[in-house]
Amino acid sequence: MTLSSLSLRALALAGLVGAAALAAPTAVAADYVQARGGLSFVGKYQGETFTGLFPGFSTRLQFDPAAPQAARLEVDIPLAAADTRNSERDSTLKGADFFNVARFATARYSAQGFTALGDDRYRANGTLELRGIRKPVTLTFTLSGGDNPVLVGQAVVKRLDFGVGAGDWADVSIIPNEIAVATRVTFKRAP
């Protein structure tokens, strides 16, 4: 092996390392706010599946990839904005038997500390406050790196734990207890 072939190999290796670093942006320790995003839920009523959205929700994130256990996530959800594209259902959801938006305008999810699961996947054992009731809810998600990280996550909320759809609506053969929630949030650095 000659000196020039060693130099070419070293140069090629340096180029590969540099390209890999550019291809996989690393998240940086920072405070972030939501730039854009979506928050949806999937429910069933008498066997018919429907999807709803919460436009106007807001998310804040403090995250250091080197210390996920110190992360913080806060999500504020305006309940009156719930939209299932069915005005009768939306009106019922906003009423006293479900979200009771006259008394509880906003739900809040907060989590302190994430558990790293590998491959940019995390778990947050947080607390959901809904209708004045606070209960644990686990969010599993991916979080991409870079200056504008993207969080894609899902959780399951047991509606009866929060008194959502109590009374005549508590029958889980009509409305299942478990509601799937999904979110996708693109962040920007907080000002």
UniProtKB/TrEMBL annotation:
It holds the Pfam family YceI. Keywords: Signal. Residues 1-29 form the signal peptide. Residues 31-188 form the Lipid/polyisoprenoid-binding YceI-like domain. The keyword Signal applies. This is YceI family protein.
